[in-house]
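Appendix B. Chain record.
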Amino acid sequence: MTGKHPDKDECLRMLELYNTPAHVVRHCIAVTDTAVRIASALNEKGYGFDIPLIQAAGMLHDIARVEKEHWKSGAQFVLRSGYKPESRIVKKHMLHSLKKTPEKLDELDIVCLGDRLVLEDEYVGVDVRMDYVIRKADGNKRFERAINKNRETNRALVEQIEKITGKSINDIIRGSV
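Structure tokens predicted for this chain:
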């Protein structure tokens, strides 16, 4: 299995095997769709993102979301299933700081950006998603500052992607791939 990315059906089977709740599966599907649309738009402009890796990692990134430190247990399960590149993305997705320039982006960044634009199973954009995360912080000012710093990085990255592709992020996500 190593060296090959699981397709959508295999990812759905893994999510079912792990007993991932249906609402989390819907979230994973929405993140995957968002990330693939962004990567595809950039690939049209000469980038070389591995779309099957983004699809698989997006589908599996929250496989263990109902657990404490879900990124660790999810990554272990994905690795035991034989998918090392996907496991790396699952493990790092929660605490990853996005690269600030599109030229340095990799598949991990694209999955994380997709995750930061989706609330549950709906594309909502940077601000709505970050506002939701801040509300969950329940007044933790240090956490709020970190989220707002990430918000600025995410916004700047989205703006750069829009310049490169010549399309708004909304058109990329809501338009056809």
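Further analysis of this model is presented in Appendix C.
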